[in-house]
Amino acid sequence: MKMQHCIQVGILGRYADRFTEYQPGRTLAERIAAVAEIPGASAVELVYPFDFEDPAQTQKLVSEANLVVAAVNLNVKTDPVWRNGSFTAPDLAVRERAVSDLKTAMDLAGEMGAYLVTVCPLMDGWDYSFQADYEKQWEWLVESLRTAAEHRADVRISIEYKAFESRASIIVPNVGTALHLCDRVGLLNVGVTMDVGHALIAGETPAMSAAMAHAVGRLFYVHFNDNNRHWDWDMVPGAGNLWEMVETLFYLDRIGWEGWLSYDVFTKHGDPVEAFASTIRSMEALEALTEKLGREKLQQLIDGSSPASTVEYLLTSLVR
C-alpha cells in the first residue's frame, strides 16, 4: 500500500472546548500554507461551507501550495439551523437545506477533482428516550441521502459514522448501521468513511470495520487518529492503541487500499504543524513496524490461531 497523506484543514484553525481555547483561529490561506509545510502531506480535506466563500480562490490557494483536494467535508452541525438535526430534522425545509448543501458540496468536489464528499451527521440523533421518532428519522435519512446521491453518479458520498457527540446517540453509530444505510439508499455512490477513532469508541476493531466495508465495495475513505476508547480525543495514531493501528494498516494493505489516509488530530499542546508532521512520521513508523513483523508471518499467526504465541511474537519483535 502506498501511503497518501491528507490533512483536514479545519483542524488547523481554532480549537477549543467548554473550558479553554487551545489553538487560535487562522484564515484559510494560513491553514493551507501550514499544510504545505508538513513533510509528506500532499492533499487537503476542505470543509463546506466554511472553506468555500470564494471557490475559485480556494482552488488557487490549494494549487499554489502544490496540493490537491482529497475530499470535501460537508459540515451539518455548526450552523444553528442544524440544532434539531440535518437530514433527519422534523422541519422539511431544514432537510431540504441539508440535501441542497450536500449537492453543492458534490459539485465543488467534482470541480476540484476530488469526486468525494464525506459527511458525519452529528446532529442527527437523540439525547433522551421518547425524544425522537426513530421510524421517521430513518425514513428521512434514507430519503435525503438518496435524493442527494441521485444528483450526480460520478461523485461519491461517504458517510462517517460516530456513536456519540454531539448527540448522546447518533443515528449512524457504527459500521454495521452505516452499511445498512448504504444498502437501503441503494446507490453505488454512497459508501462509508471509516474513522479509526470513531470505530474505537463504538467498541469496534477498526481492521474488521475496514474489511467489512471493503467486502461490499463501500469503503470510500479512511480517517486516522487515536483515543482511549471512551471519548473521541483525536490523538496521534498509536498513542493509545498501537496494535490496532498496525492491524488496520495490515488489512488496508491486504485489501489493496489505494485511497487517501486523512488525519484529524487535534493539537492541545504546541504547534499543530509539528503535530501533523509527527502524525505522518508516526504513521510511517507504524507501516515500517508492519513490514518488520512481516506480512506473511502475520498471516501465519492469524491462520495458526494461537493468540498467546501471537502476543509473544509481537512483543519480542519490538526488542530484538
How would you describe the overall organization of this protein?
The chain is an alpha/beta fold. The protein has one domain (5-318): Alpha-Beta Barrel (TIM Barrel), CATH 3.20.20.150. 43% of the residues lie in helices and 16% in strands. The protein contains eleven helices and twelve strands. An eight-stranded parallel β-barrel has the order 1-4-5-6-8-10-11-12, surrounded by five helices. Helix 8 (242-254) links the parallel strand 11 and strand 12 (261-263). The longest helix has 22 residues, at 272-293. The two termini are 25 Å apart. The mean pLDDT is 97.
CATH topology, which one? Answer: TIM Barrel
Could you give me the name of the CATH homologous superfamily?
Answer: Divalent-metal-dependent TIM barrel enzymes
Taking the alpha carbons of the first and last residues, their distance comes to 25 Å
Task: State the domain count.
Answer: 1
Give the overall shape.
globular
Number of helices: 11
Oligomer: single chain
Structural category is: alpha/beta
In CATH, what is the class? Answer: Alpha Beta
| Overall mean pLDDT | 97
How many β-strand runs?
A: 12
Report on the biggest sheet. 8 strands, parallel, barrel
* Strand coverage percent: 15-25%
Amount of helix = 40-55%
The appropriate CATH architecture is: Alpha-Beta Barrel
- Which segments are poorly predicted (pLDDT under 50) over 5 or more consecutive residues? none
Widest sheet: strand order? 1-4-5-6-8-10-11-12
Order of H and E elements:
EEEHEHEHEEHEEHEHHEHEHHH
- Determine Rg (CA atoms, Å): 20 Å
